Amino acid sequence: MEVVIAPGPTLARLAADAIERLLRARPQTVLGLATGSSPLAVYDELVRRHDEAGLSFARARAFMLDEYVGLPADHPQRYRNVIESEIASRVDLAPGAVQGPDGNAEDLVAACAAFEQAIADAGGVDLQLLGIGTDGHVAFNEPGSSLASRTRIKTLTRQTREDNARFFDDDVSQVPTHCLTQGLATIMSARHLVLLAQGRGKAEAVHQLVEGPVSAMWPATVLQHHPHVTVLVDDAAASRLQLADYYRETYAAKPAWQGL
Ligand code: GLP
Fold this sequence. Notes:
- The structure is a single chain.
- It contains eight helices and ten strands.
- It is of the alpha/beta class.
- The chain has a single domain (2-254), classed as Rossmann fold.
- Helix 1 (8-25) packs across helix 2.
- The chain is globular.
- The structure holds 2-amino-2-deoxy-6-O-phosphono-alpha-D-glucopyranose.
- 2-amino-2-deoxy-6-O-phosphono-alpha-D-glucopyranose (GLP) binds next to helix 5.
C-alpha cells in the first residue's frame, strides 16, 4: 500500500496521471468511478485534459461503485445522474459506456448479479477510484460487511445517511435507507485501487485503513490485502497516521519514472 500525503490539487493530478497513463496505453481501459466529493477534483482534471490535451475516453468503459435504491430516475442525487453530470457528459465516453447497479430494478437481486456479470464480461476493472466514509466504508460497504462480499443490497447506517444529507437539502429523512453496492471482494478484483481522502473528518478512517487491524468493523481495511493500492490523502486526513513521516520520506525519495 502506497500512501501519498500532499495538497488536494496534487492528489487530483496524481490520480488523473494514473488514469491518463492507462488510457493512452490502452484506449479500451475499464475504469471504476466513484461518487461523493472526494473524486470531483480528479474528474475536473480529466475533463481539462480531455479539452486541452486530447485525452480520449471514446473506447473506454466504466463501472460505478454503488447506487441508491428507489430514487426517481431523474433525481439529481441518483448516482447514475451524478456520474453523468460530473464526468461522463463532460468527456467523450460513448453512450452506454458507463454501467451501474440498477437501484430501480424490480428484481434487485437479479440486478446485482447482472452488474457483477457485466464487470466480468468487460474483463474486470483496471483502475478503481475510491473515497472512504467517516465510518470506514468503501462504496456502501458499511461496518460489518463481509470481506468476501459481492454486489448486493445494503442498509445504510445512520452515520452515512447523516453524512450524505448535505446532498439532500440537509434533510436526513430524504436520504434513501437502502443501496446497491459493489461488495468488498468485487472492489478487490480491480487491478489498481486509488483511494482519495481529504479533511480531518476522514483521519480516523484513514488511520484504520492504513494501519489498523483488518476487520469488517472498518471495511476499508480489507484493502491491506490488495497488491496495488494507492492512498492519496491531504495533511488533515493524514493527521492520525502513526507513520506519516515515513510515508512522506518514502514518497519524496520515489523515482519519477515509477508512477503510482
Ligand atoms: C458515499 C459513497 C462512497 C464515498 C463516501 C465518501 O457514501 N457511497 O463511495 O466514498 O460517500 O464521500 P465523500 O467523498 O463525499 O466524503
